Amino acid sequence: MSRHPKIWLFDLDDTLHNASHRAFKELNASMAAYMVTYLGLTDEEAARLRNRYWERYGATLTGLQRHHGIKPAHFLAETHRLPGLDAHLHGHAHDLAALRRLPGRKFLMTNAPRSYAERVLAAIGLSSAFEGLICVEDMQMFGHSRPKPDTRMFRAVLARLKLKPEHCILVEDTLMHQKSARSLGMSTVWMQRWLRKTPDGRRLQHRPAYVSRRVRSLAALARSPQF
User: Fold this and answer.
1) pTM of the entire structure?
2) Torsions phi, psi for 215 (to 5 deg)
3) In sequence order, which residues have a C-beta less than 8 Å from that of residue 145 and are 6 or more positions away?
4) How far is the CA of 106 from the CAs of 5, 95, 130, in angstroms?
5) Which residue positions does the secretion signal occupy (predicted)?
6) What's the CATH code, domain 7-17+90-223?
């Protein structure tokens, strides 16, 4: 990879900011409320179905579109309003400095909608750090949402941007996304700055073979030997 410009693909939630502290709690609640309203489920049924779709597809939206005919634009607009969230998002100047020290091109690649991504980046002071944003609206195939970890989507997005997988490095907190990326030839960085436990409370310590490197801050990534 040293003969080619590095292409960094950064996740957003729990990679560039602490989404588990507040944003994910509010998002989970708003998604459950959406399912109660538009699918006629109870709160308990909505919570179970949301978890099932996330575990199976990597995104609740994929399951809702595939099995219930939910329109992505409506779902994303309704569930990502999150009034007052911005006041609880905080950035650090050293994160921006670390991103700028990394050699190569940088893109944000998130399963979140563009409006949410732009809002969060502005709140944490990283709007200027990326050449472009690859958001869930950009992850459509044959009329269906195909967010991370869908390997077909990875191929299609990289082809659209004229990027080769072997020149790309995915920086993520979610292992299933890294596994798909690595299967295509990308390098992977497991960010454990905030998320260090599984949903059932087990500590995330073992580095799987498909993870190229594990770091706990952007500064550590910038300091580490490059790929």
Assistant:
1) 0.92
2) -135, 165
3) 59, 61, 62, 65, 72, 136, 139
4) 10, 14, 5
5) none
6) 3.40.50.1000
